């Protein structure tokens, strides 16, 4: 009885659902035997994996074979063309434990033969004969053939040339090593055979399948049929747990079908496809909860499936396999594609779909997929893979939304009957909920039903979905997508008349678009925002948005006009609270393009008129009437900055007066252009030592600006702090109509307070709406200055020269004073300076900005005291310029005689040393006080004149004859013509006469050169002790042609004292006696002869004079010095002598001198001094005088006999020194005789000295 | 890149042209460098597009700088940068010991004061190239002995 | 045929958008802008992944019901080219699109390197592609 075999369940033949993943094996022969071994067999068989080599170069796989055994029946054997691979018997086994030849012959053999014939009949070659032997049986049997013989028999009878088809299993139920071996051998064999047959049949199956597919172009080919076949293959792979391969089968089917659809769209329709085009009647989304959706499968099998059914089933299978493969995210992604694809395919196949049906289907499907995935993943996985699922979420949201709109669930007044009908139809299309989801609370089915049930429910679900989606997008950083969903949400809120909820989303989205400059979305979103703000009654925001839209070129003219009108309408309506202003940023309304000033340097004096002309580019589509355009001006005073003084402003601050403003970058990413431009400069680095270039290069001056981190751009929509400044100073321009495009607007203002005015804000008011440009940048300023009237007097040349006419420039800056007719300058004349007024002196009148405005003649009246210059009429803030000639008397300062003249000269020298090397011109200052019409105080002006000449005098003697030499030195830059020079004695001496020795009277004196004049003094009786002279010479600039006025001559006064010669000193040197010449090294005799030339004179009357009975004598001291050290004076070189004061009294001194050199040697100097006995009284004073006098003389007569004077000086100084230190105790003093009193008749003579014999020695010693 | 000789000639003309226009007062003095640099920037932006057409995506900043030193430099100047140094704080120093645009002038210090105007354009090239690769930077240059020169790139952290 | 070809700069603002018919442009701009999210993700991931660093083609970015194929392509300098195609045409092969983008890229480079910056050639190229892609 075969009942003991466990039979397959009745439905198992055709149900892949219970495709217990096994290969079917049939058993025949001894059933009891089989039953006994079955347990071991069935559990041993799958234990070992087998390598499965596959056709078509597919990679080999290790698989475990399980199998279920059924009793062999003929009907089990497949007929031709059976595609049921699952129920296919892969192997047939015949079991026997016969060991008796008789029995074999009797029964087993026939049985075997029958079995084989059946197999042959069905051309099934996969069979095996198992002979089980156990020793127990052998024991009790006699006449037993050896077991082998049976085996051999069977082999001979059945397995000809495939002896391996017969195996022996010995003592299967025993537990012995032998048993084990035989089992293993048997199992291996079994597996091999099974696999062989499996591979063979599978290959065959695949081949059949392909051939079937090739036929697909033939008429009558059915996709569904093919579908079943290939799915069979898929099942088999699935059974072998080869899910990849299984999936491939489905994907192939998928692709094949899609291809058909496409082709159909292209025109060549397969007739079987028309079947899928039947109208959609049910749209109850995907079902992914069962491994296999049998209903749908059957409908396919029965060829009743709609396109959606087919797709759904296919996807459900793919989903199952993908989940087996642990690839849930691929499910999500494929799902999205599938849904899109289905929608398209339905369109393509022109399948009639009731409105909303697809939306339902998609919505349900999305949720189904999502829930399925959630079902098999944990939170963490899901959260980390939002990127894959979020697409489905937003798709579901989208669909739910459109369903909502469709069923009138979004309108504020609920759905109407028509909507309701539609809803009912849609719900009908869902059919009844499926059992597997029936008891899950949140099933897609329930959700949809509920959502469509009422407005509130819909809102709830829609909001949930939207927020979830937005949240997910945001969480994975897909901000743009989030915003996009947000916009839908906003639209929804708008429809629900809940603008306050909508606004935030619109703003968010708009900001996002602005940041990246997406023009069209910006415009579109703004429009929505405008509507929203209108509903919200946010007037300012609404108006601003409107202005932005009105200036938006992406809108149509009408739209722009509309928004512009909105603004105008609002502006025109009387505002509830008067004076209430609505302040909006200007850039959307109009843009400031450029600005320029008149005067162009933007500097104007108090009371002056300033024009500011601006170009405003109106963005509005229509002309707009503006009540007033106002520029707020900030006023600041910078008192103590030179840059703000009238002088600087009027001279320096110049510009073309046109300022251009950068066009405002309308919606444009801020990141683009917020960087200041690089400031690059060449860099030269020189070595400190020598100034040679070390390195050059390029440096950037504003690195700090550029490298600092970017702060996030503030929203372009709301420029922060648009506040209206209520400045005291404004430029106003009323009732302007701004045409679209460029407009010129001119402001004029009268300058009031002096200072700097900075343009800060530009406002345009339309009714109560104020458009404000909060900051005018670049900075625009104009300056107002006031100025005190001023008078400047300055020489034209760098220094004025005394004595000749010189031009002086008068500059009157009128400042705020207006010069009326009859205003004049009153100059009180300085005594030594006169103002020469020619007839044709003219005055220039300039405006402060140096444009010449007029020219007028100058009227000048001079009285002895006052010169009055009547100024031409000039308005305020003008400049009057004219020139006058002034003449300063040449030698005014010389009045006080030479000494004070030097005195006056001194201070000036000090600071003039710089430009004039050595000696410089003596200057005199003339102070002129001028009364100006604008003030009661008189202005004092000092003019400094330099005397072009410097004069020195010298007294020259020849014996008793006397000469005066005057040296005139021209220090100025000019050349002069000297004429008729005079020297007159201003003293009382009558008989003294001065005889000029000068040749011609006219004489040029060139710049930096000197001219000498000489006079001889003559007298008859006793000359005066001192002599006062005045030298005067006429001069005129050599260049000048005949001058208008006669010039005063240049005079120079001086005084000469003790000029009369008292003593004559004569020195002689004689060679040694008996020699013709002096020889070096040999002593010569020096004879000094001092002769008194006159009798007692006034000058002799001093304490040195001694009187003894009518004989006067004075004490002198002589001294022989040889500065050039040509001579060695032997013995005492000086001595005191008492000299009789009488004419021709002589005194002779003899001394020895030795010449040190050969050649013509000048004689040693002989000097004379007065030898004064000590006299305490006025000595010091006197001696001080003498000292000064000598010094001054020595100063005057440097040039001639230098050594003498220097020695003199030294004497004097030494002497005065000692005198000062020996105050009190009596001591004689020396006093040099004035140079005029001593005449050295032998000065300049030379004596010939010849070298001595052994001169060369000396020569050597000398050199 | 155009033929080398042409590029060199064009560059020389460009420099002299800009400086002429300065003498004629069209470009205010001292802005010449900036003007040249801006030209370079524009060109750099364009070139980088071309040069990166079939290169791999860059991993990081350093990767980009290497690209500038190797491929970019080679294509423009027919040689690589000789030495690239960085403080890893966004400052890079590119040293070229034989900078192509200076090799036409005599080596050493003779014409040193003219060198910088021949570097401005290249500074721009680098800056432009980098900016198109999303790196905002400032590029300065330095020569102490021609024809060797250094370019310093300061990268703006964003 | 392609119905919209935008070029987006590395700062993600639209440098050039050509779409036919033009009335859909708004919709396209919304789509393209939204798809930038995905582009950013892809580019950043490409930067990390060592594989296909030379790959500029981003593939399908933002499928929707009506415009299934929104292909993306990002240069090294992060300039992005897009191609919106009616999802009804499915015949489009990836490598074909790839080639189109490549052409587009080249012509973009030419414009960029052209100091006189006339984009006429670029326009032509775009039109050509618009018609080609189908």
TrEMBL record, chain A:
Keywords: Golgi apparatus, Transport. Its main location: Golgi. Transmembrane segments: none annotated. Residues 11-20 have a biased composition (Low complexity). It is found in: Golgi apparatus. GO terms for biological process: early endosome to Golgi transport; intra-Golgi vesicle-mediated transport. Residues 23-332 form the TRAPPC10/Trs130 N-terminal domain. Residues 795-888 form the TRAPPC10 Ig-like domain. Residues 1024-1250 form the TRAPPC10/Trs130 C-terminal domain. InterPro entries: Ig_TRAPPC10 (IPR056917), TRAPPC10/Trs130 (IPR045126), TRAPPC10/Trs130_C (IPR022233), TRAPPC10/Trs130_N (IPR056913). GO terms for cellular component: cytosol; TRAPPII protein complex. Residues 1-20, 1193-1226 are annotated as: Disordered. This is Trafficking protein particle complex subunit 10.
TrEMBL record, chain B:
InterPro entries: NO_sig/Golgi_transp_ligand-bd (IPR024096), TRAPP_component (IPR007194), TRAPPC6/Trs33 (IPR037992). It is found in: Endoplasmic reticulum; Golgi apparatus, cis-Golgi network. Gene3D superfamilies: Trafficking protein particle complex subunit 3 (3.30.1380.20). GO terms for biological process: endoplasmic reticulum to Golgi vesicle-mediated transport; nervous system development. Its main location: endoplasmic reticulum. One of its GO terms (cellular component) is cis-Golgi network. Keywords: Endoplasmic reticulum, Golgi apparatus, Neurogenesis. CDD domains: TRAPPC6A_Trs33 (cd14944). Component of a transport protein particle (TRAPP) complex that may function in specific stages of inter-organelle traffic. Specifically involved in the early development of neural circuitry, likely by controlling the frequency and amplitude of intracellular calcium transients implicated in the regulation of neuron differentiation and survival. Homodimer. Part of a TRAPP complex. Heterodimer with TRAPPC3. The heterodimer TRAPPC6B-TRAPPC3 interacts with TRAPPC1 likely providing a core for TRAPP complex formation. Belongs to the TRAPP small subunits family. BET3 subfamily. This is Trafficking protein particle complex subunit 6B. The lineage of its organism: Eukaryota, Metazoa, Chordata, Craniata, Vertebrata.
Automatic annotation (TrEMBL), chain C:
InterPro entries: Longin-like_dom_sf (IPR011012), Sedlin (IPR006722), TRAPPC2L (IPR044760). It is found in: Cytoplasm, Perinuclear region. Keywords: ER-Golgi transport, Transport. Pfam families: Sedlin_N. SUPFAM superfamilies: SNARE-like. It comes from the Eukaryota. GO terms for cellular component: perinuclear region of cytoplasm. GO terms for biological process: endoplasmic reticulum to Golgi vesicle-mediated transport. Belongs to the TRAPP small subunits family. Sedlin subfamily. This is Trafficking protein particle complex subunit 2-like protein. The lineage of its organism: Eukaryota, Metazoa, Chordata, Craniata, Vertebrata. The gene is LOC100582637.
């Amino acid at each position: 009885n075969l009942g003991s075999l466990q039979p397959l369940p009745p439905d198992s033949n055709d149900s892949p659902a219970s495709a217990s993943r096994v290969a079917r094996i049939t058993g025949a022969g001894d059933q009891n035997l089989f039953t006994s071994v079955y347990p071991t067999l069935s559990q041993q068989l799958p234990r070992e994996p087998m390598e499965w080599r596959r056709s078509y170069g597919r990679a080999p796989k290790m698989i475990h074979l399980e199998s279920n055994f059924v009793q062999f029946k003929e009907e089990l054997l497949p007929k031709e063309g059976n595609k049921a691979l699952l129920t296919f018997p892969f192997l047939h086994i015949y079991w026997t434990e016969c060991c008796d030849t008789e029995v074999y012959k009797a029964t087993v053999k026939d049985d075997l033969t029958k079995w084989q014939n059946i197999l042959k009949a069905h051309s099934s070659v996969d069979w095996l004969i198992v002979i089980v032997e156990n020793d127990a049986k052998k024991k009790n049997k006699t006449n037993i053939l050896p077991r082998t013989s049976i085996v051999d028999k069977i082999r001979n009878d059945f397995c000809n040339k495939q002896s391996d088809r017969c195996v022996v299993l010995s003592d299967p139920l025993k537990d012995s090593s032998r048993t084990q071996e035989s089992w293993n051998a048997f199992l291996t064999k079994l597996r091999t055979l099974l696999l062989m047959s499996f591979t063979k049949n599978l290959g065959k199956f695949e081949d059949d399948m392909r051939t079937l597919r090739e036929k697909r172009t033939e008429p009558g080919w059915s996709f569904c049929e093919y579908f079943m076949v290939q799915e069979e293959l898929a099942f088999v792979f699935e059974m072998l747990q080869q899910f990849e391969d299984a999936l491939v089968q489905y994907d192939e089917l998928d692709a094949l079908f899609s291809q058909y659809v496409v082709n159909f769209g292209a025109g060549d329709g397969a007739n079987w496809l028309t079947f899928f085009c039947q109208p959609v009647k049910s749209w109850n989304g995907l079902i992914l909860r069962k491994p296999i959706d049998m209903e749908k499968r059957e409908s396919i099998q029965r060829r009743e499936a709609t396109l959606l059914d087919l797709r759904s089933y296919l996807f459900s299978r793919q989903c199952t396999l993908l989940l087996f493969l642990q690839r849930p995210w691929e499910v999500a992604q494929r799902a999205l594609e599938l849904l899109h694809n289905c929608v398209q395919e339905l369109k393509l196949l022109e399948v009639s779909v009731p409105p909303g049906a697809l939306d339902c289907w998609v919505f349900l499907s999305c949720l189904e997929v999502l829930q399925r995935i959630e079902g098999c993943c944990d939170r963490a996985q899901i959260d980390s893979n939002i990127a894959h699922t979020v697409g489905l979420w937003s798709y579901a949201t989208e669909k739910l939304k459109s369903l909502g709109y469709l069923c009138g669930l979004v309108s504020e007044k609920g759905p109407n009957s028509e909507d309701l009908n539609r809803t009912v139809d849609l719900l009908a299309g869902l059919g009844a909920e499926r059992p597997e989801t029936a008891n899950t609370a949140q099933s897609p089915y329930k959700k949809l039903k509920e959502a469509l049930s009422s407005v509130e429910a819909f809102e709830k679900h829609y909001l949930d979905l939207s927020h979830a989606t937005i949240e997910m997008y945001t969480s994975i950083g897909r901000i743009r997508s989030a915003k996009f969903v947000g916009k839908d949400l906003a639209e929804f809120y708008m429809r629900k008349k809940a603008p306050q909820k909508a606004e935030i989303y619109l703003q968010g989205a708009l900001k996002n678009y602005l940041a990246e400059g997406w023009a069209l979305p910006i415009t579109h979103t703004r429009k929505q925002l405008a509507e929203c703000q209108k509903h919200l009654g946010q007037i300012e925001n609404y108006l601003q948005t409107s202005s932005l839209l009105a200036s938006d070129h992406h809108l149509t003219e009408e739209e722009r006009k509309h928004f512009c009108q909105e603004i105008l309408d609002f502006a025109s309506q009387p505002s509830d609270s008067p004076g209430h202003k609505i302040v909006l940023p200007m850039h959307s309304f109009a843009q400031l393009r450029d600005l320029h000033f008149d005067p162009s340097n933007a500097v104007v004096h108090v009371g002056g008129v300033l024009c500011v002309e601006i170009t405003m580019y109106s963005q509005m589509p229509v002309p707009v009437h503006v009540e007033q355009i106002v520029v707020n001006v900030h006023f600041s005073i910078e008192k103590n900055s030179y840059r703000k003084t009238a002088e600087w402003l009027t001279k320096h601050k110049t510009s073309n007066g046109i300022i251009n403003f950068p066009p405002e970058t309308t919606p444009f990413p801020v990141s683009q252009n917020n960087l200041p431009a690089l400031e690059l400069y060449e860099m030269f680095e020189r070595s400190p030592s020598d100034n040679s270039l070390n390195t050059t290069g390029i440096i950037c001056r504003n690195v700090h600006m550029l490298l600092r981190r970017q702060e996030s751009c503030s929203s372009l929509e709301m420029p922060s702090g648009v506040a209206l400044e209520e400045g005291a100073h404004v430029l106003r321009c009323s009732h302007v109509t701004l045409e679209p495009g460029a407009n010129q607007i001119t402001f004029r203002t009268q300058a009031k307070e002096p200072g700097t005015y900075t343009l800060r804000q530009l406002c345009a008011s339309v009714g109560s709406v104020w458009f404000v440009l909060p900051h005018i940048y670049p900075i625009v300023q104009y300056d107002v200055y006031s100025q005190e009237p001023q008078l400047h007097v300055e020489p034209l040349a760098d220094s004025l020269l005394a004595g000749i006419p010189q031009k002086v420039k008068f500059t009157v800056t009128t400042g705020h004073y207006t010069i009326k007719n009859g205003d004049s300058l009153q100059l009180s004349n300085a005594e030594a300076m006169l103002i020469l007024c020619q007839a044709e002196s003219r005055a220039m009148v300039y405006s402060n900005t140096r444009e010449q405005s007029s020219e007028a003649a100058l009227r000048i009246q001079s009285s002895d005291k006052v010169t009055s210059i009547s100024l031409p009429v000039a308005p305020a803030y003008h400049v009057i310029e004219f020139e006058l000639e002034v003449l300063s008397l040449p030698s005014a300062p010389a009045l006080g005689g030479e000494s004070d003249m030097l005195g006056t000269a001194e201070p000036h020298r000090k600071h003039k040393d710089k430009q004039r090397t050595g000696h410089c011109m003596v200057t005199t200052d003339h102070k002129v006080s001028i009364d100006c019409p604008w003030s009661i105080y008189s202005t004092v002006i000092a003019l400094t004149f330099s005397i072009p000449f410097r004069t020195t005098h010298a007294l020259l003697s020849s014996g008793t004859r006397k000469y005066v030499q005057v040296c005139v030195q021209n220090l100025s830059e000019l050349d002069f013509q000297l004429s008729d020079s005079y020297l007159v004695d201003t003293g009382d001496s009558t008989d003294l006469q001065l005889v000029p020795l000068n040749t011609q009277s006219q004489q040029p004196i060139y710049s930096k050169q000197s001219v000498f004049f000489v006079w001889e003094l003559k007298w008859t009786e006793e000359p005066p002790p001192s002599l006062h002279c005045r030298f005067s010479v006429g001069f005129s600039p050599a260049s000048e042609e005949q001058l208008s006025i006669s010039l005063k001559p240049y005079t120079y006064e001086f005084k000469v004292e003790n000029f009369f010669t008292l003593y004559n000193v004569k020195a002689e040197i004689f060679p040694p006696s008996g020699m013709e010449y002096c020889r070096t090294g040999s002593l010569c005799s020096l004879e000094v002869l001092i002769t008194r030339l006159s009798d007692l004179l006034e000058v002799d009357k001093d304490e040195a004079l001694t009187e003894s009975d009518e004989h006067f004598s004075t004490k002198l001291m002589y001294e022989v010095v040889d500065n050039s050290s040509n001579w060695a004076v032997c013995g005492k070189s000086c001595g005191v002598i008492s000299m009789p004061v009488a004419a021709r009294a002589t005194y002779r001194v003899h001394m020895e001198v030795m010449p040190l050199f050969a050649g013509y040697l000048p004689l040693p100097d002989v000097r004379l001094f007065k030898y004064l006995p000590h006299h305490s009284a006025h000595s010091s004073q006197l001696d001080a005088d003498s000292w000064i006098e000598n010094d001054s003389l020595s100063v005057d007569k440097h040039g001639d006999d230098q050594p003498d004077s220097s020695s003199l000086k030294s004497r004097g100084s030494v002497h005065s020194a000692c005198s000062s230190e020996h105050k009190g105790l009596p001591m004689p003093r020396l006093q040099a005789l004035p140079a005029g009193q001593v005449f050295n008749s032998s000065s300049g003579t030379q004596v010939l000295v010849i070298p001595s014999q052994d001169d060369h020695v000396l020569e050597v010693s000398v050199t | 890149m155009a033929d080398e000789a042409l590029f060199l000639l064009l560059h020389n003309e460009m420099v002299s042209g800009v400086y002429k226009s300065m003498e004629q007062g069209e470009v205010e003095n001292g802005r010449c460098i900036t003007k040249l640099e801006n030209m370079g920037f524009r060109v750099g932006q364009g070139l980088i597009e071309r040069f990166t057409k079939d290169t791999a995506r860059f991993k990081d900043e350093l990767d980009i700088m290497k690209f500038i030193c190797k491929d970019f430099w080679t294509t423009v100047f027919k040689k690589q940068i000789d030495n690239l140094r960085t403080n890893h704080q966004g400052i890079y120093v590119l040293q070229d010991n034989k900078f192509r645009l200076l090799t036409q002038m005599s080596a050493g210090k003779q014409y040193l004061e003219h060198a910088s105007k021949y570097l401005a354009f290249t500074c721009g090239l680098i800056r432009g190239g980098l900016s198109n690769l999303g790196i905002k930077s400032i590029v300065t240059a330095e020569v102490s002995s021609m024809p060797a020169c250094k370019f310093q790139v300061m990268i703006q952290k964003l | 045929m392609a119905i919209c070809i935008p070029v987006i700069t590395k700062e993600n603002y639209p440098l050039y958008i050509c779409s036919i018919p033009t009335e859909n442009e708004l919709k396209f701009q919304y789509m393209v802008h939204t798809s930038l999210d995905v582009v950013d993700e892809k580019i950043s991931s490409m930067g990390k992944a060592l594989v296909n660093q030379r790959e500029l083609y981003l593939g399908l970015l933002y499928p929707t019901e009506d415009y299934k194929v929104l292909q993306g392509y990002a240069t090294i300098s992060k300039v992005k080219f897009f191609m919106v195609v009616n999802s009804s045409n499915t015949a489009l092969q990836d490598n074909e699109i790839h080639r189109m983008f490549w052409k587009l890229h080249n012509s973009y480079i030419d414009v960029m390197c052209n100091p006189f910056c006339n984009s006429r050639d670029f326009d032509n190229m775009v039109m050509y592609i618009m018609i080609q892609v189908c």
